[in-house]
Design brief:
Elements: H1 3-29, H2 38-50, E1 54-55, H3 56-60, H4 67-79, E2 83-88, E3 91-99, H5 101-125, H6 128-148
Helix pairs in contact: 2-5
């Protein structure tokens, strides 16, 4: 790979990180986070989007937190009644985490405000066709990175928590 290619790849990566950091700073500064931190919201959103219970390791792969920080955050969410844990029926050593009805309601309420904020911030910089192009590029980039990861364990437990 030529030096120019290495430089371009690194400058592109830095630009992507700068855009993400700027957006996250903007979101964090908004007044919608009085009931949840943005990190707590991220966990609730990830569970809602999955539509099923997830193992902590699966959540870890989807949020930007270290495993210990995520574990403590899930503990706090559980103590507030926003998520619940139950044994994984497919792996007795594992634990599944799911939204409670209260957690789902809070995520939906804050999520509606956050969605409008995302739309405002994205529209301020990009036309709809540019957003579609960005989505295509980021999807392709993410898929390529997943393909480069070593195979982890088999299928993740994605199911409803037992009653």
């Amino acid at each position: 790979m030529a030096d120019a290619d290495v430089r371009l790849a690194n400058e592109s990566w830095e630009t992507l990180l700068q855009a993400q950091a700027a957006l996250l700073r903007g979101f964090a500064a908004e007044r919608m986070w009085d009931e949840l931190s943005i990190k707590e919201y991220d966990v609730l959103y990830t569970l809602k989007k999955a539509g099923c219970a997830k193992r902590l390791s699966d959540l870890h792969g989807a949020v930007l937190l270290s495993q210990p920080a995520l574990s403590r955050l899930v503990d706090r969410l559980e103590s507030r009644g926003l998520v619940r844990r139950a044994p994984d029926p497919q792996d007795k050593r594992g634990v599944l985490i799911a939204l409670t009805p209260e957690g789902a309601e809070l995520q939906s309420r804050i999520g509606a405000r956050h969605a409008r904020s995302v739309e405002r911030r994205m529209r301020a910089a990009l036309a709809p066709d540019e957003m579609r192009t960005l989505q295509t590029f980021c999807t392709r980039l993410a898929a390529a990175q997943r393909a480069l990861l070593p195979e982890t364990r088999g299928t993740a437990a994605e199911q409803e928590l037992p009653s």
